[in-house]
Amino acid sequence: MTTKLGNVVTVSSAGAVGVLALNRPDVLNALNRELMQELVAELERMDRDDAVKAIVITGNDQAFAAGADIKEMADESAVSLLLKRQFDVWDRIGGIEKPIIAAVSGHVLGGGCELMMNCDLVVASDTARFGQPEIRLGVMPGAGGTQRLTRAVGLRKAMELLLTGDTMPAEEALRCGLINKVAPVELYLQEALKLAHRIAAQPPLAVRLIKQAVRKAEDLPLAEGLDYERQCFYLLFASEDQKEGMGAFQEKRNPQFKGR
Ligand code: CAA
């Protein structure tokens, strides 16, 4: 395990899994510009690093993140936000091809919840609380909350959370389909790492194309999504891993995937 301390993100790796920990504990990991830039730069670096097969993003037990940094935002104007291209950095998360697992605990609010919803899988501690409280600040989510929360939990629950600013506990988030798994607070990070290691051991090309195809399902009409899936399926038959996977099945041995 190697660990590198950035200004506001701690970067470590455990075998084939890269781990990024948000590190502004004094402000419950509020997402300021520096943190988002550092986080996304590290995500992109890990995405290009062949040794990394899956990525975990976490915070600490008290907070994954309590939202965008309100103090940094308070004096902005519509024009300053537009000129700063405030959300461009968020859009780059959509370009990450490796699977991202969020390991969340404590406050998962506003931009924190939106960051989590940008991840592909979520393991939460039993102390986690989720919500989009922006309405209490006189604004609304700006990093995808109205769209991704609605797709994840359905229109009624999204309306309730967004219009009241209330939070919901981990068990409810699990029932709503917002997260994959709940674990005791001492174990959620371990569980997320376990899941990441399982995915990291899968054939990398199939992992990459499955992530792409599932992400397309959020945007495409069914017929186009099915067509996209089929092209990806055909493409995998050009890989050595397909020959290895199907050969190993017939020879009754474990496959050795090489990612080509
Ligand atoms: N931005 C900046 N600082 C924050 C913050 C945020 N989002 N959330 C917490 N902090 C800071 C507090 O100001 C406080 O700092 P000081 O000690 O310097 O005063 C420190 O973190 C600890 O917070 P609290 O004392 O408030 O802790 P608490 O346990 O009493 O309450 C809380 C916790 C309920 C999460 C409360 O901090 C809170 O309501 N935070 C704001 C949540 C929020 O509104 N998030 C949405 C932000 S807007 C957004 O995210 C827009 C978007 O779509 C991108």
From TrEMBL:
One of its GO terms (molecular function) is enoyl-CoA hydratase activity. Keywords: Lyase. It comes from the Bacteria. Pfam families: ECH_1. Its EC number is 4.2.1.17. PROSITE patterns: ENOYL_COA_HYDRATASE (PS00166). One of its GO terms (biological process) is fatty acid beta-oxidation. InterPro entries: ClpP/crotonase-like_dom_sf, Enoyl-CoA_hyd/isom_CS, Enoyl-CoA_hydra/iso, Enoyl-CoA_hydra_C. Belongs to the enoyl-CoA hydratase/isomerase family. This is Enoyl-CoA hydratase. It comes from Paenibacillus thiaminolyticus (Bacillus thiaminolyticus).
